[in-house]
Design goal:
Length: 643
């Protein structure tokens, strides 16, 4: 192989030698004309590249076609351009801003359109998109100089895009993509021609401030989905409908769990039943904290911002609420995380190695000034609590502490019925604190601990926090959506920043190792995710109302009330529904409220001291004594049965 050649390893193990600068489309054509016609992108070393982008490295190479999972991202990215082109055709004065960086699920464009768009406009936009797709317009890649790009977009009246050119780092390659009369600044990758897009649908329209700044003009954002076939699109739209029915905001309102008001954006009001759910989760985590040796503390809500400058969060965490007290010059921060306060607690007195490991847990409220446009029910809030904890230990105790946390994590996810977890170990990012050698040792420790715990995992290069690498637990819900839940992080900076020390067995002072632990993460976010995963049908031990007792007639109400008293005496959360409605109506009402158990009392039950028990989603009914029914529910709560 010459110095100006590249060696590509194909999926079948064969090697192909191509000239330096050959494109993925050149490679596909060399393999076969059919493959070239069906190609939508290339992949070199696992990285997607545009078919027209010159290759500059050797390594594993694949041609991506519509049959490959990665094709969806390329198709949606290309449909994004087609959508913007269609809008420009319909309203030529439109200015385009930016599209979406993540095309794994959908596409979007922010646009300055001279009309107020509504879903009623989708039909005409989609019709124009179909004309562009049917025309099979080629998508052409062009490398341009910075000033040339500015002149081009200025000549098109695209002032927003002229401004975006300056966002690109000096020295970085600028590329344009054209299809028909439409042109945009873009890195790609894109399909060869618009006919490869296949099937698409616009899904919603909303607003977004230019550059995410509320002081800037409001643009309009159009969302859509695209796939290679109508069948794939149909399946996706069905999943969207399922997601709509499972939307936690809808479930939360239907079940009277929580509520939001415009005067407290991003801060949920917990209603009585919602607070039962929240408190039950906290009580469960407190029980496990006790079992695994964590001590609960509460640190102040307000701190002088000097603590966050010391921790490194002041500059790296811009979303902090900051206030000034009347008549005071000091700047106060509302705490967005617990770790700095826990460091102050550790450093509040001299510590001995005999006290270590010291495991501090906290559930107090945290506040983060998330942008209003990003707030989304319980899954993106400004006010939250976390099942947060920090571990301070001797360096030779780190492995044992990691093992302890991972055992606890496995127990929590088992009790909640969460399976199919995907685990990643996130490594040093571009911006980091500490020494590279310390990072590499910490990353290895996390990887080894994950293996010892029996979890298979993948490395996530560059995705660690600025202060340390971490283990991430990702969960796929019943709709196949992925959510990050728990983390276990090493901290490479905070012990030194807070000058934390303990006296070792040698009588000398040493710096403790520090780890951050969260299993559910934000409780608000977890509640939102879990409600959607279960469609609101919570397991008995978490259900705000665990049983409802229904007297068949008024003459059975007194007995039904006594049944409720017995259940309450055993700690069962029970309601009595003695409304003057038919029994069938009240049963359907209990089912709609997703109550796990319905207990019916009539003449026979009154005479025999029994109840007829009906389990959620089960047609079979059993008539048992009240004490037996009570014991059954108690045992299911105790064992945290998932159903």
């Amino acid at each position: 192989m010459s110095e100006r050649s590249l060696e590509l390893e194909l999926p079948d193990g064969t090697c192909l030698c191509v000239p330096f600068g050959a494109t993925p489309l050149d490679v596909a054509s060399k393999i076969g004309p059919g493959l070239a016609r069906g190609a939508v992108a290339g992949a070199i070393g696992g990285r997607l590249v545009d078919l027209r982008e010159p290759l500059s490295q050797s390594g594993p190479f694949r041609v991506i076609t519509a049959r490959d999972p990665e094709a969806g991202e390329v198709i949606r990215h290309s449909a994004e351009h087609v959508m913007a082109a269609a809008v420009k055709r319909l309203w030529p004065e439109t200015q385009i801003d930016v599209g979406r960086s993540d095309h794994s699920e959908k596409f979007q464009y922010d646009l300055d359109v001279p009309v107020r768009l509504t879903p009623e406009h989708f039909e005409s936009i989609e019709a124009e998109m179909r004309r562009i797709v049917e025309a099979q317009q080629p998508l052409e890649r062009e490398v341009v100089e910075r000033e040339e790009a500015k002149r081009l977009f200025a000549s098109l009246g695209e002032e927003l895009k002229v401004s975006r050119v300056d966002d690109i780092d000096e020295g970085a390659e600028l590329t344009l993509f054209r299809n028909g009369d439409f042109v945009d600044l873009c890195r790609g990758p894109h399909v060869q021609q618009t006919g490869q897009i296949g099937a698409f649908k616009l899904t919603e329209v909303g607003g977004s401030y230019w550059r995410g700044d509320e002081s800037n003009p409001m643009l309009q954002r159009i969302y859509g989905v695209a796939f290679s076939t109508e069948k794939e699109l149909g399946l996706h739209l069905e999943r969207l409908e399922q997601a709509r029915r499972r939307d936690h905001r809808r479930i939360g309102a239907d079940l009277d769990l929580f509520w939001f008001h415009a005067w407290a954006p991003g801060a949920p009001f917990y209603l009585p039943k919602g607070l039962v759910l929240f408190n039950t989760l906290v009580a469960y985590m407190r029980e496990l904290n006790l079992k695994y040796g964590f001590l609960e503390v509460t640190a102040p809500l307000l701190f002088d911002v000097e603590i966050f400058k010391r921790s490194g969060h002041y500059e790296m965490f811009p979303d902090m609420f900051k206030i000034r007290a009347s008549g005071e010059d000091a700047e106060i921060g509302v705490k967005p995380m617990n770790c700095p306060g826990h460091c102050l607690i550790f450093g509040s007195r001299k510590r001995s190695y005999r006290e270590l490991p010291l495991r501090l847990a906290e559930f107090s409220r945290l506040h983060r000034n998330e942008r209003s446009g990003t707030l989304l029910g319980m899954t993106r809030v400004r006010a939250m609590s976390q099942d947060d904890a920090h571990i301070y230990c001797q360096p030779d105790q780190v492995e044992a502490e990691m093992d302890r946390v991972l055992r606890m994590t496995a127990e929590v996810y088992r009790d909640l019925g969460l399976s199919g977890l995907e685990v990643r170990v996130a490594t040093r990012p571009e911006q980091y604190i500490g020494e590279i050698g310390d990072w590499e040792r910490a990353e290895k420790r996390l990887g080894d601990a994950t293996e010892r715990a029996g979890f298979s995992f993948e490395w996530a290069p560059g995705e660690g926090a600025f202060y340390g690498p971490k283990i991430e637990f990702h969960f796929r819900d019943v709709l196949g959506r992925q959510w990050q839940l728990g983390t276990l992080q090493m901290d490479m900076a905070m012990p030194e920043r807070f000058d934390l020390r303990y006296v070792g067995a040698d009588g000398q002072e040493h710096v403790p190792a520090m780890m951050h632990k969260a299993i559910l993460g934000s409780l608000e976010r977890f509640i939102g995710i879990y409600l959607e995963h279960t469609a609101g049908e919570l397991p008995l031990w978490l259900a705000p109302v665990q049983a409802q007792v229904l007297p068949i007639a008024d003459r059975h109400a007194e007995y039904a009330g006594k049944v409720c008293d017995v259940l309450r005496g055993s700690g069962i959360r029970v309601e009595l529904d003695a409304r003057s409605e038919t029994l069938g109506y009240r049963i359907r009402s209990a089912e709609t409220a997703k109550i796990p158990y319905i207990l019916v009392a009539g003449d026979r039950e009154l005479a025999d001291g029994t109840v007829t028990v009906r389990r959620r989603h089960q047609k079979a009914q059993t008539t048992v004594g009240v004490e037996e029914a009570c014991s059954t529910l108690e045992e299911e709560v105790k064992t945290r049965g998932i159903s």
